[in-house]
Amino acid sequence: MEQLLNNKSPLELSRNANDIKGLDELRRAAQSGDGKALDEAAKQFEAIFVQMMLKSMRKAQDVMADKDSPFNSEQVKFYRDMHDTQIASDLASNGSIGLAEIIVRQLGKVGDDYMPAGALRNDGNLSSINRNAIASTQKAQEDVLGKQPIKTFQSFKTAAFEDAQSFIEQLYPAAQQAAEQLGLDPKALLAQAAIETGWGKHMIHNTSGQNSHNLFGIKADRRWQGDRALVNTIEFEQGVAATKKAPFRMYDSFAESMQDYVGFVKQNPRYEEAVKQSQSTEQYFSELQKAGYATDPDYASKVISVFEGEQFKRFSAQQLGTPSDAGGIQ
Asked: Is 260 a residue of the active site?
């Protein structure tokens, strides 16, 4: 046994969890710049991690243990914990888990796939780790499409209109052109856009402040070849609302958003029945919801409620130059 210990280096002796001298050797080696010290320190860290797991397992076992058993005494637990500590050190030295290897690669800057410690991950988005793969994908897209690669922006929602009235007035001309292609009332399109954006109070913008102009909450699937805005959205799963992060299409203008909506609905077979019912606003949105346009079970009724609401009554009265049902335009 003594001969076996003599054959080990001072750093290897530090793996003995109860050898204080070995740990001191590790500390001095690290201070002197010994490259092997990082490897041993990483194994020590992995050993601590494994020891914590074993300790948690032992605690769970102790709850069910027989308190009167001689194998459940404090003395037995003391030596058992010492044994677990040494097992953890041995497992780490054998590379059984691999955590030490990752630590060495990270702190030692080994290879091209390490991420600097100062790098920050935004909202838990881990895709930035594999930058080489992302660059290769963008290069392939550029070669195939013959244009600039698709860009995905971290985004947030903020207001783009002062109020509901300005929302309607500014978007109505573009809505007229788009709705004509669907045979739909322009105000129906604006009502849907109002539901999707909260009357323009929750428009998607990227971190540079650029407006996505996405009025209808259309996501950027694999068919979309333009820029994308990554933002939190509420989805309903079995009737329960949940927040998820998803990419949405970005447009250069609201008119472009309107026209893309028309193409999105008309070219998608699943919305064929909705397009057939476009002469009836209520039937159109009912069929749109049935086809899965939105996960909100009350989506169609919400849009119809806005469509028949006071804001559009006032706007219609203003167009005709007559008082509204509520006693005139305020």
From this structure: yes
Q: Point out the catalytic residue in the list 235, 252, 272, 325.
A: 235
Shared-domain flag, residues 166 and 20:
no
Q: Do 13 and 100 fall within a single domain?
A: yes
What single-letter DSSP state applies at residue 149?
Answer: P
Residue that finishes a domain, picked among 84, 107, 130: 107
264 token code pair: 């999105």
Tally of structural domains, the chain: 2
Is residue 142 scored above 50 in pLDDT?
yes
Q: CB–CB of 119/41 below 8 Å?
A: no
Render pLDDT for 1-56 as a digit per residue (tens, 0 to 9). Answer: 444 444 455 555 555 554 555 666 666 666 666 667 777 777 777 788 888 888 88
CATH number at residue 235: 1.10.530.10
Helix axes 20-31, 35-64, angle to 10 degrees: 140
| 3-class secondary-structure state, position 153 | strand
Which range of residues forms the domain containing residue 286? Answer: 152-320
Instruction: Choose, from 25, 227, 260, 287, the residue flagged as catalytic.
Output: 260
Q: Cα–Cα distance between 295 and 302 in angstroms, integer? A: 13
- Judgement on whether residues 224 and 303 belong to the same structural domain of the protein: yes
Residues 62/54, Cβ–Cβ less than 8 Å: no
Instruction: Check whether residue 172 and residue 309 sit in a common domain.
Output: yes
Would you tell me how many other CB atoms lie within 10 Å of the CB of residue 293? 22
Contacts of 311 (CB under 8 A, 6+ apart): 164, 165, 168, 194
Catalytic annotation on 123?
no
- The distance of Cα 261 from the centroid of its chain, to the nearest Å, equals 25
Q: Is the pTM of this model over 0.85?
A: no
Q: Are residues 65 and 162 in the same domain?
A: no
Does the pLDDT value for residue 61 go beyond 80?
A: no
Tokens of 3: 């001969």
